[in-house]
Amino acid sequence: MKPRNRQGFSMVEMLVITGVTGLLTSALIPATTQATRNAGMTTVGGCGRDIYVSIIGANVEREPLGLGDVWPKTQAVKEEDNRRFNMQDISNMAFQNSTDYFYELYDGANAGTAEHAPYVVLLFDYSKLAGAGVPEMKGTGKLKPENNMWCIAGNVREEMEDVIPVLVTRNVDCSSLYKDYDDQTDTPLRWSEKYDTPYGKKQFLVIRKGGAIHNARATHFTSRVTYSGQKFTTTAEGKAPLVYLTPDGIAHPQ
């Protein structure tokens, strides 16, 4: 019996197949990348929400005890201003960046020991500061800015509106936020010049004072809807102005 002849693909057919495969790949990769990024945003948003809920929970527990809130402050409370407070309490401490604040909030100095006593006991640990290209802090020791993706509003007060962003991913330049939005026609936010993660110049994430999660893209940088109605005016006598503590400094809104 003669062996059956097998005819392979011609060169033209191979080129056609290669071209079609390339087109399909080029069409699928962006969609897959965006889907992956959206999934990552959901995870990061959950981390931000957990941080927010942890802070609110700590404040609720402290209020009946006559203790101050644990929102970060940029100037320490003087002992003569409120003698109820232990000066080692976080509500009396001044912070110059969000990394030191989160380190103190979690009692990082005593992490892994029997003396560990974080101010927030639920939902928060260093893993909430990482993700989407920001590496998680491993082991014990001083928390580093490179392991912290969040900028957090400092000097927050109860009377401030719920729409104010209290947590913003570090790839946004928080100094481009407005103190008072009423006279503005848009919100020309700027990307951070120092931090490219998370999400580079493609997406960013905000947790508002009311607890709402806002996943935004680059196109929202000039959208009035994104921050419509926010007011950062904090000029009351004796009260520190609202600022943003970045992983390694302070950003003053416009």
Structure commentary:
- With 254 residues, the chain is an alpha+beta fold.
- The chain has one domain.
- Helices cover 24% and strands 13% of the residues.
- The chain has two helices and eight strands; from the N terminus they run ααββββββββ.
- The chain has helices at residues 11-62, 98-105, and strands at residues 150-154, 165-169, 172-173, 190-191, 203-208, 213-217, 243-246, 249-251.
- The strands form two sheets. A six-stranded antiparallel sheet has the order 6-5-2-1-7-8, covered by helices on one side. A two-stranded antiparallel ribbon has the order 3-4.
Tell me the layout of helices and strands:
Blueprint: H1 11-62, H2 98-105, E1 150-154, E2 165-169, E3 172-173, E4 190-191, E5 203-208, E6 213-217, E7 243-246, E8 249-251
Antiparallel strand pairs: 1-2, 1-7, 2-5, 3-4, 5-6, 7-8
